Amino acid sequence: MVTKQRLLLVDDHTLIRKGLRLLMAGWEGFEVVGEAGDGQEAIELALELKPDIVLMDIYMPRLDGLEATRRLKALLPEIKVVILTVADDDEAFRAALEVGAEGYLLKTVEPQHLYYLLQEVARGEVPLASALTKKILPQLKAQEKGDLLSPREKEVLTLVARGLSNREIAGRLFISENTVKNHLRSILEKLQTKNRQQAVHYALQHGLVKLRE
Q: Which SUPFAM superfamilies does this one have (predicted)?
């Protein structure tokens, strides 16, 4: 006999919870074991019921879904939390990933698609709202590239962006011109750019350097 994934529904709108419960009643492999109307109640029920997956709204009274997720992941790290929300903004999306949510879905998702996405969660995958990932993931990848740069390389790139020549950069940082060239070679490789102009354009576009002191 296949073990069903136990679901806890968390939303401050009773109609949403009851609608989801009714929808999921016919889903093979899933079982709704509880409902909560806010984040605090969600934590209390999760500790009692030990669900496999928590479907969590964000905007709720007493304790919002993001803070509830953070606390849940600290108390019960094995539980998978999937945010189901109307919030399609970058800030909420980033915050959900930061507090440990395994998924981020919008309430506009089609019922059948929600079923498939929860199956992905059960398998250990991370479903994300496609519209948001198209905006956010390139930014995250850019930040990852920026994180590869050493503090000195960031200094050099910042000075390049401000229009300084290699000689001027060397004088400003009290290093040789050859060292500046080595830093630039490393920067181009890490940012996957062909020349200093492309590196500066990439860095400015993704907020990796600042033109002002």
A: CheY-like
More confident residue, 111 or 203: 111
Mean pLDDT along residues 158-169:
91
- Could you tell me the CA-to-CA distances from 107 to 17, 32, 83, 129, 163 in Å, in that order? 12, 18, 10, 10, 48
Q: How confident is the model at residue 129 (pLDDT cuts 50, 70, 90)?
A: low
Helix (H, G, I), strand (E, B) or coil at 103: strand
Helices 151-161 and 196-205: crossing angle, nearest 10°? 100
Report all structural domains of the chain as residue ranges with CATH numbers, in order of start. 5-133 (3.40.50.2300), 149-205 (1.10.10.10)
Position 132 pLDDT exceeds 60: no
Q: Are strands 53-56 and 30-36 parallel, antiparallel or unpaired?
A: unpaired
Cα dihedral 126, 23, 46, 91 sign: positive
pLDDT at 136: 58
Cα angle: 115, vertex 116, 119; to 5 degrees: 90
Of 136, 172, 137, the closest CA to residue 157 belongs to 172
Alpha carbons 9 and 18: distance in angstroms, whole number: 9
